[in-house]
Design goal:
alpha/beta, 7-stranded mixed β-sheet, two-stranded antiparallel ribbon, 46% helix, globular, disordered N terminus
């Protein structure tokens, strides 16, 4: 399906954009790329955020973070500069690419489905760095939201997203992180890359909004290396803070363009919620008995790999 871009009154572009797990019509600002040769490169060192999360400040992406700095149960600290989580990297400026160069990345994993990449664009990466595609099944959300938002029909939009339906859809998506075999294989491959280190470290993984597929991967990694549950949940929910202004602009753009009378219907799709995480974890318990069972039986990670994750990430 071909989607036509239109310009709104507030100077943003209406496009198909994944809200964390999967694509939806959205308004996203087009960052102004500095002229070549005159760009003022952003600092190569990430800026620690006020909440202790190490944010990588970029112009073309808003949810890029270093997973380092968290304390484990035994008081050790997750190493900085080993693993980064992010939203889409297709809109990076030249200065942003220079910042990524400073992270000395060896591998970038993209969880977006092919339709997202075709529409929103491939990652902009430092020279010599290729992306590894590991698409996570979209459960049909891309096509559904194309229909809903593109209809411009407030009645249809309410019928499909209102009365808790959007929230329920996202819970169902999170359950597929546990129940879908190909999805599990993609998460497992990424965790094995991190455990391997060497040519794959430092590593960055991302989806489009950096909150659902990326959030679940980060949850698994941090729990596997011994970070307390409450801390990991805080990291998961931090996407709401980093994405708040951007997502509000999306909703305003949709309203001003006439695509949605009530863009707040999208909030459950834009946010991460503990209920989404709980949906996945309930499935974990039902299918595998525990998170450990999911890691070993569901993802096929042996004890040596889990120990290697700990040794690679903590100290």
């Amino acid at each position: 399906m071909r989607v036509t871009r239109t310009r709104t009154a507030v100077g943003v572009t209406i496009s198909v954009l994944a809200l964390g797990t999967l694509p939806v019509w959205a308004a996203h600002a087009e960052p102004a790329a500095p002229e070549r040769g005159t760009a003022r490169h952003a600092p190569h060192h990430p800026r620690p955020a006020a909440d202790g999360v190490r944010q990588i400040p970029l112009q073309g992406a808003v949810n890029v973070r270093d997973l380092g700095g968290y304390r484990t149960y035994d008081g050790e600290r997750v190493r900085y500069g080993q693993v980064f989580r992010a939203d889409a990297l297709a809109k990076l400026t030249d200065a942003d690419v220079a910042t990524l160069s400073g992270l000395r990345l060896k591998k970038v994993v993209d969880f977006r489905v092919p339709a997202e990449v075709r529409y929103d664009g491939a990652d902009r990466l430092p020279a010599g760095l290729a992306v590894t595609s590991r698409a996570i099944n979209d459960s049909g959300l891309f096509a559904t939201l194309m229909t809903v938002i593109g209809s411009r029909d407030p009645v249809k939009q309410e019928e499909m997203l209102g009365n808790g339906k959007a929230d329920a859809f996202m819970r169902a998506v999170y359950r597929t992180f546990v129940t879908d075999g190909p999805n599990r294989a993609q998460f497992a491959a990424t965790l094995r890359d991190i455990a391997q280190g060497g040519k794959t470290s430092p590593l960055l993984y991302h989806c489009t909004a950096g909150k659902d597929r990326t959030g679940w991967t980060s949850y698994l990694l941090l729990r596997a290396v011994g970070v307390p549950e409450s801390t990991v949940v805080d990291d998961f929910l931090a996407s709401n803070t980093y994405r708040a202004a951007y997502d509000a602009k999306v909703r305003e753009g949709l309203k001003q363009s006439g695509l949605m009378q009530n863009p707040d219907l999208l909030i459950p799709l834009q946010e991460v919620r503990t209920g989404y995480l709980e949906a996945a974890l309930t499935e974990v318990k039902a299918e595998y008995g525990s998170l450990s069972g999911y890691l070993t039986k569901g993802l096929g990670l042996d004890a040596r790999t889990i120990l290697a994750l700990r040794e690679r990430m903590v100290g």
